[in-house]
Amino acid sequence: MALACVALAACGAQQPPDRVERLDLDDYRGRWVVINYWAQWCKPCREEIPELNDFAQRYPEVAVLGVNYDGARDAELQAQIDSFGIRFPTLLEDPAAGLGVARPQVLPTTVFIGPDGALAATRAGPQTLESLAEATGQAPPPKEGSESRL
User: Fold this and answer.
1) CA atoms of 19 and 91, how far apart (whole Å)
2) Could you tell me the CATH superfamily of domain 17-112?
3) Where is this region: Disordered (predicted)?
């Protein structure tokens, strides 16, 4: 009996997010989708990743997905994901053509898809926690050091 309880507890344990997936907007209908293009050689991309990780953690109702601009695959892609500390799924295929948008010419670039599945915005340059929340209509994160007082 005790063994069964341990097994059930293990089944309910949180698993790390999938590292790689393909984009099917139907899977995200009713949710905001944030797609971030990054590359290993892009210093602003590396600096932006902690903001995206924080956003993905604070706003789990928004899907945050990455795209490796250079099309790295398999072990090379995983090594880059690990090197950047990316904690959100990375798409295997560039979704630009399927979304009807041009492939970015500047990195980082972030594409915002609204809950209706339509393109809402494309922003070039590094995003912040605040700019991501604003672009997706989320409540702004509390200012650092601020406390709510009753």
Assistant:
1) 8
2) Glutaredoxin (3.40.30.10)
3) 123-150
